Amino acid sequence: MDAKFLSEFKEIEKGIWDLPKSYKLGMRVPLRIVATEKLLKEMDDGAVQQGINVSQLPGIVGASLMMPDAHWGYGFPIGGVAAFDLKTGILSPGGIGFDINCGMRLLTTNLTEEEVRPRIVQIVNELFDAVPTGVGGSGIIRLSKKEFKDVMVKGAAWAVEKGLGWKEDVLHIEEEGSIKEADPEAVSDRAIARGINQLGTLGSGNHYLEVQKVETIFDQNLADELGILQRGQVVVMIHCGSRGFGHQVGTDYLNTFEPAMKKYAIIVPDRQLACMPISSPEGKEYFAAMAAAANNAFCNRQVIAHKVREVFAHVFGKSAEDLEMDLVYDVAHNIAKVEKFQIPNSKSQINSISKKSKTKTVEVMVHRKGASRSYPNQPVILGGSMETGSYLLMGTEGAMQKTFGSTAHGSGRTMSRTQAKREVRGEDLQKKMKKHGIYVKSASFSGLAEEAGFAYKDINEVVTALSTADTSQPVASFKPLGNIKG
């Protein structure tokens, strides 16, 4: 971070740094960053400026928030969180992202590293065949337009009804895998055409399907409750979203919102923050379309999980039930939802939401872009790079008081995909990972190079920041054994 930014930040409590709203004319609330001192110093200036821009949006409550994995994005920083008053606030597609409900899912097994490692090549190859990857990839599920609209409404439950999952799965998904306000009529025909054949596909970019081993257990009691029983246990992590469907929904409404802002006398510091009042017809229509895309993503991860269970059952000659391939949790990032929180009652305290005195309950529209929900006793899945590993954490009451129930979603990039490809060839990276005991298969070597471990922040430092600020606490860490990527 540039020294001019860094010198203005004050640590208001351990692990939480504020840039006061007096820093720049137009800021309605402070910019608040969850970080260690090291991560704060390394935060890129573009992301910080985006956080300042978000603080200027109408109806924002509390603070413009950035998680320790934050980096530059479209409109909002990736790793950005903002809550808006339902009467005076706005909805911004740039605050949600184009891959609506990109999210994480974690499955357990009762297998050990010793049992899985000799078969990891077979497992990864069969997963690669079972779950289509890459840009524009199509799945084997063919839907009519009516069936696809049912997916938009029912989400993960649609897949379970079709035998592509277990009935108890939905109990372990954020919102039980379906946001109720979804309306397929708010979705364009072009978005439907892009998404109708992509159910059960992984996509490209940083999306992955990874076979992992439990490396460290930090809280055995919590880990036991979640089915994480011992070191060396094998789990499977899925990271993907709504694919081209969500991207088109975001594009459609951004194109609508930008010219329509004049109608509501809204001025934004960056055109990528184009937005509409939450209560406006345009805002309500976008929210209904966004919810439809989010439900599609929940269903997409459900179908992929079913395919994972089938592959493991085939490789090991046992049923997925016998292998205890239970769903730990499925958590969304890139989403906006109406949620309830306690905030200070007096205007003089409105920028210090961590204070518990003189509070009132409010409903706000929380934007989480590259950020996960972190409610007390709710699992949080923190995806790392394919070389370094990932974490399972637990949400906290601290997050409810400090970050509108939010935490990080991963390790966060330190360089662009273009720069990463300049630094390493995909073929060389694949060979290097194989030497380190990680078998990876990708739709393209170019896409593989983009996701090299050095292109990401130190996930251990990110977890330290989260635990220090008490926005989530570590339960277990995982190391990769095998990975498929787009």
UniProtKB/TrEMBL annotation:
Cofactor: how bound: Binds 2 manganese ions per subunit.
Residues that hold Mn(2+) 2 according to the record: 239, 333
Keyword Metal-binding listed: yes
UniProt record, GO biological process: RNA processing; RNA repair
Enzyme's top EC category: ligase
Catalytic machinery residues: 409 (gmp-histidine intermediate)
Entry cofactors: Mn(2+)
Catalytic activity: a 3'-end 3'-phospho-ribonucleotide-RNA + a 5'-end dephospho-ribonucleoside-RNA + GTP = a ribonucleotidyl-ribonucleotide-RNA + GMP + diphosphate; a 3'-end 2',3'-cyclophospho-ribonucleotide-RNA + a 5'-end dephospho-ribonucleoside-RNA + GTP + H2O = a ribonucleotidyl-ribonucleotide-RNA + GMP + diphosphate + H(+)
Annotated segments matching region Disordered: 403-423
Matches recorded under Pfam families: RtcB
Gene3D superfamilies listed in its UniProt record: tRNA-splicing ligase RtcB
UniProt GO MF annotations: GTP binding; metal ion binding; RNA ligase (ATP) activity; RNA ligase (GTP) activity
Keyword Metal-binding set for record: yes
Residues holding Mn(2+) 1: 99, 207
Compositional bias (Polar residues): 403-418
Keywords: GTP-binding, Ligase, Manganese, Metal-binding, Nucleotide-binding, RNA repair
Chain sites annotated for binding GMP: 206-210, 333-334, 383-386, 390, 409-412, 485
E.C. numbers: 6.5.1.-
Subunit record text: Monomer.
Family to which this protein belongs: Belongs to the RtcB family.
Protein name in UniProt: tRNA-splicing ligase RtcB
Organism whose genome encodes this protein: Candidatus Woesebacteria bacterium GW2011_GWB1_39_10b
